Amino acid sequence: MPALTRTQIQTASDIKTERVAVPEWGGYVNAKAMSGYEREQFEQTVAQPGADGKIQISYKQMRITAVIACTVDDDGNHIFTDADRDWLNDKSGAALDRVASAILRLSGISQGATEAAVENFTPDLSDGSSSA
């Protein structure tokens, strides 16, 4: 296997998508793997400080956060925004689970992998306004 160049990595099409049938909604959606940025945002959303000071995984937020972040139309445009969270939470749990499971699988995230990823995670408490 050859060493890759910067250009080869930059131009690689490495974000996979998968069509997921959602009969509860009368059709299908496209689940896509998380980009590096989306993965960072996902981990920050589902990682919550516990009473003991250790980071805990919020499984309550995991599925819906994945669905919002990585459900796209046929042109690759995001279907949902965070403003859709409340009404999406009222949709079929089976449908949401099917879509979220595809997204998490495509993104290489399993329950064990998520726990391992945030085991030593420290939340970013900055407001993002400083420049480094």
Which SSEs are present, and which pair or pack?
Elements: H1 6-11, E1 17-22, E2 27-32, H2 36-46, E3 47-49, E4 55-57, H3 59-70, E5 71-72, H4 85-89, H5 93-106, H6 111-118
Antiparallel strand pairs: 1-2, 2-5, 3-4
Helix pairs in contact: 2-3, 3-5
Characterise the protein shown here:
This protein is α+β, with helices and mostly antiparallel strands and 132 residues long. It has a single domain, classed as rbstp2171. 42% of the residues lie in helices and 15% in strands. It has helices spanning 6-11, 36-46, 59-70, 85-89, 93-106, 111-118; strands at 17-22, 27-32, 47-49, 55-57, 71-72. The strands form two sheets. Strands 1-2-5 form a three-stranded antiparallel beta sheet. A two-stranded antiparallel sheet has the order 3-4. Strand 1 (17-22) and strand 2 (27-32) form a beta hairpin. Helix 2 (36-46) runs antiparallel to helix 3 and helix 3 (59-70) packs across helix 5 (93-106). Residues 127-132 have low confidence and may be disordered.
